[in-house]
Predict the structure.
Amino acid sequence: MGRKIPMWQCLLVMVVLLVLLFWGIMVDTDAGEGHVALILAGAFAAVIAAFNGWKWQVMEQGILAAINRSMQAMLILAVVGLMLASWLVGGVIASMMYYGIKVIAPSIFLFTACLLCAIVSLATGSSWSTAGSMGVALIGVGTALGFPAYMTAGAVVSGAYFGDKMSPLSDTTNLAPAVAGSNLFDHIKHMIWTTGPSLCIALIVYLIMGFFGDHAGSADTATIDAILGFITDNFEVGILYLIPPVFVIVAVALKLPALPSLIGGVVLGIPFMVTQTVHTGLTLKSVPSILNYGYEAAVPENASGIIQEVGGLLSNGGMQGMMWTISLIMCAMVFGGIVDCTGIMGSIAGALLKLARGTRGGLVVITVISCILVNALCSDQYLSIILPGRMYKEAWEDRKLKAKNLSRCLEDSGTITSNFIPWNTCGATMSSFLKCPQWGAGGYAPFAILNWLNPLVSIFYGFTGISMEEMTEEEYQKVLEAREAEKAAAMKAMEA
């Protein structure tokens, strides 16, 4: 173990990271986008840590631990690549798009997209499964109805993260109360105060955008007919082709493990790939190659721009197409693992806590900012809940605020903003599934209304005191006794 790294050096590491990311993403896109920037920032952080006595073996273990935490995410990405390839070639996504275009009215499309994703993710507890299946199809439906992909992606992300945040099946929904020391169902009920209004406002905004926005109904009947014709020319569509996504949704809702459930979706998609051979011209022996390398829908050279766009949505890179995202996550874990294990992130969060000055509103603001910072610096949504929760738990207790206030705040900022960071596991996954960046021209973040509104609602409650329940004096004394017991047990363990 090394000595505590001075604050100015911790801040220097942050500055170097931001400069390198700006250079890699905004200035020189040939530099490897975020990948090289994260590796170089990790190397700089390692040098700073080494000057302060930290051994490479410790940092290496930190990197490996960070990669291990994200390994399930990377495996899910690889399997989803396989699943999307089988569903696209098998006509599953095409059928979802076809019936979606037929059924959903343009004026309520964004509202419906958000609400459907909220229901599915609430049932499954997974924003990733929701975006990787229903979200992909909704992007195609939105394109046909005249909505830009970034608008649809924003509605999809808003709905998907509502369920991810509120479902008792979600890992983060279970993690936050465990870290803060609250009860799972108390935590969920308490989140209704912040997440409920955020979803309602988002749905109202999506309705307004649908009825009065410039894009509402901008695709005329001829264009929609052309899109439907393109789909039926390239794929056979039917109700039976909806079996694979229904299976995945039901399997995850029944708490079956995510990876086997998704692999089941791949297996169910393969027979449909065979039935599509007449339309796609593919043979049975090409199935493994398609699953690995993906499929590109045949688009006529003289096709209109909208048809070419739909053709792109009905094409997929297979498992190999996910490797760019997986490598980005691994590069992010190099940096995140080092700043976590060497205490750089902890020092920054501790300094932020001093700015709260003991006020309730200030404590909420610092917790929200810390969760967002950990999402950006450590690239991991679980750490964005664990680190601030662990560091600020006593401060919330000393302010005599019940544990469910802290657990709610951790989810209002950690879970909900993770997809806004392009190199975070969640951000990289969402942009990969939905083929849409978070920021810049065509970015979905401004339209993911629930995700940026939720932290603001949480801060508003912090300053006004709405729903911020305080402990009784008896409850506070029990907390102090439990804290002393924990310290005594830790001392005893150290002596042993």
Summary: The mean pLDDT is 81. The chain is about 75% helix and 0% strand. The two ends are 20 Å apart (CA to CA). The longest helix spans residues 56-89.
